[in-house]
Amino acid sequence: QVQLVESGGGLVKPGGSLRLSCAASGFTFSDYYMSWIRQAPGKGLEWVSYISSSGSTIYYADSVKGRFTISRDNAKNSLYLQMNSLRAEDTAVYYCARSVGDVWGQGTTVTVSS
Amino acid sequence: QSALTQPASVSGSPGQSITISCTGTSSDVGGYNYVSWYQQHPGKAPKLMIYDVSNRPSGVSNRFSGSKSGNTASLTISGLQAEDEADYYCSSYTSSSTFWVFGGGTKLTVL
């Protein structure tokens, strides 16, 4: 069935780095644009980044621009989010989502704390 | 502060109808027919309920409907059921550099 599975979350110190992955299955991954969306504890949804189906077009939220890098490997059906210079306010559940959000992963938790 | 404005909470009794508003600008909600609505139960991933203002994905109950007037989009849930109690978020494409924006979310309580 159509599925997205995130991984790579964890506890990291301020200023540290993490790389999130999102494995897609059950659909033609290369046909779809993808996004990362996060949700801080007790807060609402915040769009983080978008990548087109080919990877040629990328957008970032102002809050992560210059620190996060989105990428994809269509041969591996995988989406990535490289997160550098992490801050306490980056603490959240990170979801990958297909297209307009018709498919979501279960989320992976990132905690930035000393 | 979220880019799109939603009421923090709404409530209704079983069987009633409720409407959740989502107000943006001409750069997002008002300028494009790319408004989506999501339902999120506690501890779960969001679920797409409406896309492109008024379209329902396969499997979503026809009790859920969407509309738009000017810079404000709306989600209407008719025949409220206990399982509709959840948080609801709107989102829209935006012509600003941020591409996609969300509302702050609305907590629906079924009384």
Task: Describe the 3D structure.
- The complex is a heterodimer of chains A (114) and B (111).
- By secondary structure, chain A is mostly beta strands.
- Chain A has strands spanning 3-7, 10-12, 18-25, 34-39, 45-51, 58-60, 68-73, 78-83, 92-98, 103-104, 108-112.
- In chain A, the strands form two sheets. In chain A, strands 2, 4, 5, 6, 9, 10 and 11 form a seven-stranded mixed sheet that branches. A four-stranded antiparallel sheet of chain A has the order 1-3-8-7, with no helix packed on it.
- Chain B is an all-beta fold and 111 residues long.
- Chain B has no helices and nine strands.
- Chain B has strands spanning 9-12, 18-23, 35-40, 47-50, 64-69, 72-77, 86-93, 100-102, 106-110.
- The relative contact order of chain B is 0.34.
- Chains A and B meet through strand 5 of A and strand 3, strand 7 and strand 8 of B.
Q: What about the largest sheet of chain B? A: 6 strands, mixed
Compute the number of strand runs of chain A.
Answer: 11
> Order of helices and strands of chain A, N to C?
EEEEEEEEEEE
Share of helix of chain A, binned: under 10%
Cα distance spanning the termini of chain B:
29 Å
Instruction: Report the uncertain regions of chain B.
Output: none
Helix count, DSSP H or I runs of 4 or more residues of chain B = 0
Largest interface: A-B, 18 and 24 residues
State the secondary-structure class of chain B: mainly beta
Helix tally of chain A?
0
Order of helices and strands of chain B: EEEEEEEEE
Q: Average pLDDT across residues of chain A?
A: 96
Strand coverage percent of chain A: over 45%
The portion of residues assigned to helices of chain B is under 10%
Weakly predicted, low-confidence segments of chain A:
none
Oligomer: heterodimer
Content-based structural category of chain A: mainly beta
Any idea what the radius of gyration of chain B is?
A: 13 Å
Number of strands of chain B: 9
